[in-house]
Amino acid sequence: MRDSYHDRLDLLMADLLEMTDRVRTAVQDATRALAEADVQLAESVISGDQAIDALASEVEQTGFSVLAISSPVAGDLRMVTSGLRVVMALERMGDLAAHIAKIARLRYPDPAVPPRMMDSFLRMAEVAEAMVATAGRTLQDRDADTAAQLDANDEQMDKLRRDQFVEILGDDWDEGVAAAVDVALLGRYYERIADHAVSVGKRVVFLVTGIQPSEQN
Amino acid sequence: MRDSYHDRLDLLMADLLEMTDRVRTAVQDATRALAEADVQLAESVISGDQAIDALASEVEQTGFSVLAISSPVAGDLRMVTSGLRVVMALERMGDLAAHIAKIARLRYPDPAVPPRMMDSFLRMAEVAEAMVATAGRTLQDRDADTAAQLDANDEQMDKLRRDQFVEILGDDWDEGVAAAVDVALLGRYYERIADHAVSVGKRVVFLVTGIQPSEQN
């Protein structure tokens, strides 16, 4: 027989995993909207962000009510406080995917990204999606080892971003100022999604080991 | 006579207010480093961010130990959970001030911002500093009314940012791609500092009224 305390903890985790899934899809769709100048898809990412925000709000209320009613300790307390941190990261990732989609919408019917840069963004999206998926999986499996490795994936993202700067600031950049600005901001959004995945990873390490993120490597 | 429970709550609030002060100073100094191409000041903002991070980590550990040991309820519980959210926003604001300083350092001895744009950034910094100060003050005074008004200040920031885009994407922009990219990213950093101040304001409203941010206007 289940009690409402454990039901609430299960709901919290289920909502977080659902958010992870939706964020991953949002990143994927936003990137496709960018690559194919698909304004309908961009719109659906932008409106879909509300569902992510609604889930975030549900996680917050669940977490808060568990703290208020049940005063969990040890592992359960870590799960709730970590959940309340992870949910902020996931909500921001959803916002960032929506920002990407908004740039695709803004430039429509033109593509927002010059063809020569699109491969780089597809690779950024690949890295970001994989990191979001890994973050979700490690949360579900309480896999601190894999969670701690998200930092290494983040280095790929940083490298992709540095390469983009070399392109847009190079002498043979002939796509103009607006395209360069779009590339710089889009690159920033993907980079931030990856950063948030790393921070989720740190929370997973804390959840499993009890070691505070600031004391982790 | 004080007990350690209330000492911990007082410490948590004192650390948050100290962070608010340091963030405001960091924004101010980063902007001066930008305006005056002052690389020493930029360095001091960048290294000063570690002190902000250390305070953040102290707040987290204090908050977590209060939850674990004392299982606070009602207003005290809201204070701890809000504190754990506010600290993330303040930590990010510190990072963003450091990002601004890093652009000043990167372009040194040249100014990162073309003279024609500097007024706009000085105004952005003014708005951001005022918002950070207001966020801190409303936290200290538990002033939900003023906290709720931070949204209106944020509109000034958004307007400044839109005006910057008009400049850098206009036909008479002759400062080149690199300067336009710097302006776009710097503008983004100031805008995000303001966004975080708004989110602190929402937490203050929650702290005082018990109304969740998602249910606030």
Automatic annotation (TrEMBL), chains A, B:
InterPro entries: PhoU, PhoU-like_sf, PhoU_dom. Keywords: Cytoplasm, Phosphate transport, Transport. It comes from the Bacteria. The keyword Transport applies. The keyword tRNA processing does not apply. GO terms for cellular component: cytoplasm. It holds the Pfam family PhoU. Residues 16-103, 122-204 form the PhoU domain. Plays a role in the regulation of phosphate uptake. Homodimer. This is Phosphate-specific transport system accessory protein PhoU. It comes from Parenemella sanctibonifatiensis. The lineage of its organism: Bacteria, Bacillati, Actinomycetota, Actinomycetes, Propionibacteriales.
